[in-house]
Amino acid sequence: MPTMPRARKLWANSNLAALIIWFISALTFWILFQMLLRSSAPPSTGSSISYEERRTRLYDKLSRELDEKGAAFLKYGETSQSLSLSDLFTIKDGAVTPVLKAANPPVRANVLYMSPQYSVPIAEAVKSILSPYFEKAIWFQNSSLYHFSMFHASHHISGVPATEAEIEAEVNAIKAVAEGLCPLRISLDRVVLTSTGVLLGCWQVNSGVDPVVLRDRLRTALPHAPQKQLYDAAILHTTLARLLGQPKLPKENRITGLQFFHDLVNKLNSQLHGIQAQVSELWYVEEYDVLALALNGRMKVHKLNLGCSKA
Ligand SMILES: *[C@@H]1O[C@H](CO)[C@@H](O)[C@H](O)[C@H]1NC(C)=O
After folding, report:
1. Are the beta carbons of 202 and 60 closer than 8 angstroms?
2. Residue 144 Cβ contacting ligand 1 at under 6 Å
3. Of 32-41, 131-140, 171-180, 300-309, which range is least confident?
4. pLDDT over 90 at 18, yes or no
5. What spacing in Å lies between the alpha carbon of 227 and ligand 1's midpoint?
6. Which of 15, 186, 257, 281 is in the most buried spot, having the most CB atoms within 10 Å?
7. What mean pLDDT is reported for the chain?
8. 296 lines ligand 1 (CB under 6 A)
């Protein structure tokens, strides 16, 4: 019978085809499985460094900046009171006063908020260590407004105008993000003085959502936000104070070089390093003045709780 061999050949061919299909399926499955494994692996394993390590390197770099770039804040234009000030501040009735500039369009910032329970003791330590040396040439961050800048829907470099309805939609989107996230437990890694005179508290995350992940969620929730954001995605920092000029020292120990500032930062670190805090509020802030959160400017705050619900 001539049909028999043809049938056998057909059978063999289909067997081969099945084998090939099976092989391709298995290969595809294996590749997808490997991709899944890689994407769900904790960031500390694998080739890339952990978020914690990324922050440590970033803070190391910030710590070196004062030596590398010098104390630029000592060179701000001097006023008649022989006080050097940045263009953010002026002297009014003998007191340092912020120069508020309207932000147009208003800045829309998402920040993590530190409650006074944690910020007040830090602010008091900062004040007691710095006040003796900087009578007026300093601006202390308002302890009711300690915050960690996370992500801007619009910022002063790249403005993204929004209507009231669009702002309301943004707030709702951020609210949904906040509800799905757990509060953060954090500890103060170190205090850093930048070359522009900004005294920063730089923090590590012990538990809760990592700033990298949070910024990622915020970017997804705010598709119109400026592509270029203001900070490294890993940073978790709060401004403690801004130095505006020379410290007041007896003539015999006029400062030479930066050792005085390093000593000051060391003193702050010995008191504040390792201090713990819990952060459970995300704020969406409409800042009508540039740096309103930093300079007590005009703003509208939408407070959102990190709800820790499985959304
Ligand atoms: C600090 O911030 C709070 C809350 O916005 C405000 O009520 C208070 O007046 C501010 N303090 C100063 C000195 O501006």
Report:
1. no
2. yes
3. 32-41
4. no
5. 32
6. 186
7. 86
8. yes
Q: How far is the CA of 170 from the centre of ligand 1 (A)?
A: 26
CA distance 186 to 188: 7
- Ligand 1 atom closest to Cα of 143? 1
- Is the CB–ligand 1 distance for residue 295 below 6 Å? no
Calculate the alpha carbon distances from 182 to 44, 178, 235, 284, 311 in Å. Answer: 20, 8, 18, 17, 11
Distance from residue 232's CA to the centre of ligand 1 (Å): 28
pLDDT by residue (tens digit) across 23-81?
Answer: 556 666 565 555 555 554 444 444 478 999 999 999 999 999 999 999 888 876 555 44
Q: How far apart (Å, rounded) are the C-alpha atoms in residues 117 and 113?
A: 11
Taking the CA of residue 201 as centre, how many other CA atoms within 13 Å lie in the half-sphere pointing to its CB? 32
C-beta of 305 in contact with ligand 1 (< 6 A): no
Q: Which atom of ligand 1 is nearest to the CA of 145?
A: 2
The strand ranges marked E within 119-248 are: 138-140, 147-154, 184-193, 198-207, 237-243
Tokens of 305: 């709780």
Which residue ranges form the domains of the chain, and what is each CATH number? Answer: 49-310 (3.90.1140.10)
Residue of 272 and 4 predicted with greater confidence: 272
> Which is the closest atom of ligand 1 to the Cα of 144?
2
Q: Report how far ligand 1's centroid is from the alpha carbon of 292 (Å).
A: 11
296 CA closest ligand 1 atom index: 14
Beta-strand pair 138-140/237-243? antiparallel
Mean local confidence (pLDDT), 90-116: 92
Q: Please, is 100 exposed, middle or buried when counting C-beta atoms within 10 Å of its C-beta (0-12, 13-18, 19+)?
A: middle
